[in-house]
């Protein structure tokens, strides 16, 4: 079987075969309790269930009384979400998600499933990546139900609808498609449902996996969907007729369809007068263009187009580069790669250490590069301003695009000029 080929549901043909497979795992427990003329068999994963609830509200009741059928057990146990089923796929999925399976040894086809799953939940915290000064501060967590609850609290309307799909032959991850009926574009909705349904992979552990699997062009360095950690942003785009995708276990939602301007807007813009919000969006767009094009322009002008530089500035550039032995291309690539190394090192180190490395490393390397005549003062200023401009992008993924696209632009400027 290929690595990304979906495992067929019919690969396990019977409940007996499933039990034999599960018993190979040390954390799978099977208990047998005598009851009247037969025995009750209870099967579960001890690592997935809340053991206290199981002992106090399931095992105690079953040991104290005698039962003749699964329905008798179900009527006694205090669980509303229990179910009796003989569906192989349902039993398999339920056990692997923290349900216990109760059977009589005389009936191998039917089982009573009771949800006593243990869920470790992280407390709702402030948004760390999309931080806002004004407006709501809460962010999504890794629990799908909590995230959907946050969205429903923002949009308490019966028209807010949700569809759930299972993705991943091994992870069996729940993907929720959320939209507002009557506002959403039906063609877009059906296309998204189709794309998610056709995904064939072994695991989907985060919303970023989903982005790569449903994108029109997964090899593009430009983000095609926007992922966000903010419930208020999701509520805003849903009200505009867009769609949100949630992946169980991921603290980020995907919103689509997306335009380029969406990556330069923040939820804080909604709290400002339109003129001020528009000014800041244009400022971020200008910073994007400045960050991408300034260093390539430096390389192109110094390589081919000296005549475009005013005489006074040209004299400054000549003096600044008089001792630099490298052409503008090598000089620019050296500084840009150095900046990226400092960024990456700062991101991977602990917060306080990373901040120190970024500041001290930038100052020391910049000063040493000029004194060693490896680069000019002017280019250091340009590269520093370009790096600073890239940080104005409010969405992390477009920031990565800015970092990557700068390098082919620099090389093209050296080869082709303006």
UniProtKB/TrEMBL annotation:
It is a multi-pass membrane protein. InterPro entries: Spore_Ger, UPF0353/GerABKA_families. It is found in: Membrane. The keyword Membrane applies. GO terms for cellular component: membrane. One of its GO terms (biological process) is spore germination. Keywords: Membrane, Transmembrane, Transmembrane helix. The keyword Transmembrane applies. Pfam families: GerA. The chain crosses the membrane at residues 282-304, 349-368, 374-396. Belongs to the GerABKA family. It comes from the Bacteria. This is Spore germination protein.
């Amino acid at each position: 079987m290929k690595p990304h080929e979906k495992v067929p549901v019919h690969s396990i043909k019977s409940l007996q075969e499933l039990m034999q497979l599960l018993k190979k795992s040390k954390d799978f427990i099977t208990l047998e309790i005598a009851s009247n003329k037969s025995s009750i068999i209870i099967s579960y994963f001890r690592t997935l269930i809340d053991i206290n609830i199981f002992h106090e509200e399931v095992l105690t009741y079953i040991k104290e009384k005698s039962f003749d059928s699964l329905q008798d057990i179900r009527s006694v146990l205090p669980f509303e979400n229990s179910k009796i089923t003989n569906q192989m796929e349902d039993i398999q999925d339920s056990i692997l998600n923290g349900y216990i399976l109760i059977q009589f040894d005389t009936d191998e086809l039917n089982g009573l499933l009771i949800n006593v799953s243990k869920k470790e939940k992280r407390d709702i915290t402030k948004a760390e990546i999309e931080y806002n000064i004004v407006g709501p501060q809460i962010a999504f967590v890794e629990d799908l139900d909590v995230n959907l609850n946050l969205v429903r609290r923002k949009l308490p309307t019966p028209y807010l609808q949700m569809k759930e799909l299972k993705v991943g032959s091994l992870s069996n991850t729940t993907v929720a498609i959320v939209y507002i009926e009557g506002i959403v574009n039906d063609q877009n909705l059906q296309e998204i449902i189709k794309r998610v349904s056709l995904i064939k992979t072994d695991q989907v552990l985060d919303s970023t996996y989903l982005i790569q699997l449903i994108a029109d062009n997964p090899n593009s360095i430009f983000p095609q969907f926007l992922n966000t950690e903010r419930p208020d942003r999701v509520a805003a785009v849903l009200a505009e007729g867009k769609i949100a995708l949630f992946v169980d276990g991921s603290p980020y939602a995907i919103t689509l369809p997306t335009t380029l301007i969406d990556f330069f807007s923040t939820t804080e813009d909604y709290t400002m007068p339109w003129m001020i919000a528009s000014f800041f969006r244009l400022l971020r767009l200008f910073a994007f263009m400045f960050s991408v094009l300034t260093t390539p322009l430096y390389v192109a002008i110094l390589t081919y187009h000296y005549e475009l530089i005013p005489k006074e500035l040209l004299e400054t550039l000549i003096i600044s580069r008089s001792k630099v032995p490298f052409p503008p291309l090598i000089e620019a690539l050296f500084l840009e790669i150095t900046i990226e190394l400092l960024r990456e090192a700062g991101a991977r180190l602990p917060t306080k250490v990373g901040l120190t490395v970024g500041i001290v490393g930038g100052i020391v390397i910049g000063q040493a590069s000029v004194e060693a005549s490896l680069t000019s003062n002017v280019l250091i200023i340009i590269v520093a301003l370009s790096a600073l401009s890239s940080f104005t992008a409010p969405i992390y993924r477009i920031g990565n695009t800015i970092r990557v696209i700068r390098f082919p632009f620099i090389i093209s400027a050296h080869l082709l000029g303006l």
